[in-house]
Input
Amino acid sequence: MKLICYGVRKVEKPFFEKLNKFGYDLTLVEELMNDENVNLIEGHKAVMLRANCPANRKNLEKMKNFGVEYLLTRTVGYNHIDLEAAYEMGFKMARVPRYSPNAIAELAITFAMNLVRKGAYMVDRTRNKNFIVDEYMFSPEIRNLTVGVIGTGKIGFTAAKLFKGLGARVIAYDLYPNEAAKEVVEYVTMEELNKTADIITLHCPYIKGENDNLLGEEFISNLKEGAILINTARGELQDVEAIIKGLESGKIGGFATDVFSNEKEFFFKDMAGKEIDKNVEKLISLYPRVLITPHIGSYTDEALTNMIEISYENLDEFLRTGDCQNKL
Output
């Protein structure tokens, strides 16, 4: 079985090769799939994508003409695939329903610690040989803060445990409370979490039409003064303009994100000296109160291993049985 995999970074290639217990004939492409390199698919029966690989109708038609039967994505989300078109064309598709929750949770903790302790600010100053301790460096300890976790699935629950391990009071909101999580968190209403938490971290799924721009003007207006907001979930959950206003007014003390709704326009590209979305530019200018990473929450050894293994197993299950438990 000839399988082409897009978006395989150099550091990832040994994992793809080592974990290939099914003996697939692999073609590993470092670039994300685009309208040009989609032609590399010719001669392959299976394709593996990652986020921001545009499997739109035009590219799906090319795949179909090349004889592709199996379309895999090594991601939980699949909004980069035009499912309606893919169903019409008869592709057998599967995703990765979960991977190491620690990967995302640890990034949320990293963001929180940097924003609370002013880590980026201090390192920047000492990098420039300025060793003066100023008032901005003074900080509370995490154990004296309240952390609000929105969404207590595997990732949110893991984040809650990590914050609890640091001694913080952890409160949470979820439409469907996790019984196991009750040993770590105190479930409250969204309104109470909004007004009480010193740090709020998002770990809920994006549901179009239901929680778009969750971090918007109303939410921000009800924040505790100087609260820190962290989003390692989905870009559609944040209203960037409202967040900028909150930062400028001081209502938001710090903001960190690994995601944007329009991230495919600039993430995974060197945009130095080039114009990008004006709101993203504004957020960048608010560093170090704003920390941005390029959708690397899952960029860990364990998460990568999970993604590759499950994707390989999805294809094997399709080949053996004609079906797959993780099918789309």
